Amino acid sequence: MYAGAMPGSRQKEDILEISSKGRELAAGSIDMQPAQYYGTAEINDSLKSILSGKSPEVSKAVYTLIQSNLLPDGSVSDEQERAALLETGLSQAKFLADNYMTGEESTRFLSTINQIAAIAKTRTVNPETGQASYVTPPERPRGAPEGYVSTGELMKRFDPEAYKQLGEAMMNGGDWGKILFQFALKASHNNEWTTKYKEETNKIVNDLRNTPITNRFAGADTSSMKAFLTDMITQFQRSSLSNTESLTKNMQQFANVLGH
Hints:
This protein is mainly alpha-helical. It has helices at residues 41-51, 56-70, 79-100, 103-120, 151-158, 160-172, 176-188, 191-209, 225-238, 244-257; strands at 14-17, 24-27, 124-125, 132-135.
């Protein structure tokens, strides 16, 4: 599993969740050196596999567009601005796929980026705390079967008191193994928990898979960086968007990362 605070995260941060009540994870703020994206093992491994052997500039461009465009931190609160940033990021991903990846790599890369974009669209903000959260697919360890059910997530969902005790035991050096064993026994007599959990997680997966991903800049010219910059900036200027200046700077940053 991949969990923990991203480097450079600010106090006003966005949170990633495994489910509606899932495990939380900070989505880092914009940095000169972007944090690598941590969501699920599958997404993380897909990115690492695709970027293996690519130049540091290409890897940095990928993680920068994820961090700056798809999952910007809480400093970008306007929903229209976030939508424009996301769509710009999708076009930047298409440029990378067309110019730095093979056909099979390109397909896998864009599919992974679309998964992250779907996660980005689940963003909700707690009106009391101002904290934002996202929903991600359920975590499945490497090599685990399709029907894998996380004991920890099952405990969190159906026995929150035991889950709290488990966390305290793990932090304080208590007998957390005993707590897990006792819950496993309890779960074995409540098969409906597993059935309900699978229904809920399958709904999360299906909802994310079927999230409409639209992009008003989808037809941008990706034949060269010059053509891409010109086309994107022209589309910004012709649009009714209020943040055209910040979008233009975002595009210039993307070009700079790739050495242009």
